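Handoff note, outgoing to incoming analyst
You'll be picking up this chain. Sequence as last confirmed:
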Amino acid sequence: MAYFDSDGVQIYFEERGKGDPVVLVHGFASRSDHNWAGWIDTLARSYRVVALDCRGHGKSGKPHDSAAYAGETMGEDVIRLMDHLGIKRTLIMGYSMGGRIVTGLLLFHPERLRAAVLGGIGAVSASAPSFDRKPVVDALLAKDISEVKEPRARDFRQFAEATGNDLKALAAVMASNREDFPAEKIAAKKIRVPVMIVIGTKDLLVGNPKLLRDAIPGSKLVMLEGRDHLSAPGDPHYVEAVLEFFKSAPA
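Most recent structure output, in case you need it:
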């Protein structure tokens, strides 16, 4: 077990293998060993794998104040972890919430990334409504899941309970003041880091993956046939695509 202090919050991380570094950033209401089951062992055969539990999740600190998750705080945790471990540039993969975190790093810290995989994520247009987080916040704060009627919010609550996370901390994460990244803002940054987007064909949670691909010059889009948001990480085609992509990344 390893921890480091990231601006007053203890962040748990696991480090395995040797070679070029790969940082893994998990999804909302998950944790590193859950989201990346099987992945860490596979990648550690060729890489130095660093997988963290994001603040509010797993074994990391869990503030109940939404301000502790505002802005790009969770991305800064990743940068501080890299600094803590002496990693100047890295290959990186984020899934779902982790994909949003890595998108922020592509926008604000591109010099720290060699190549990035954005899993389980799409994009929205500036003119389109973004995901409404309030029903999920209410579901996480409900006394019992039986009180939650909205289907998507109920799914979030059920998953959060199954992974053994702190519901109040997750509600604070979901309620935090984090900027959405519409396709227009991503495109304006003219990202030069190699990017691959991976998403299931049945994933209806995360916006339009083709819009995201079009916003990042030269990015590659891999669609996993028949996979939804929860089943995509275990698809062997996902693993094969990532291994090939990382292998081809420039030094």
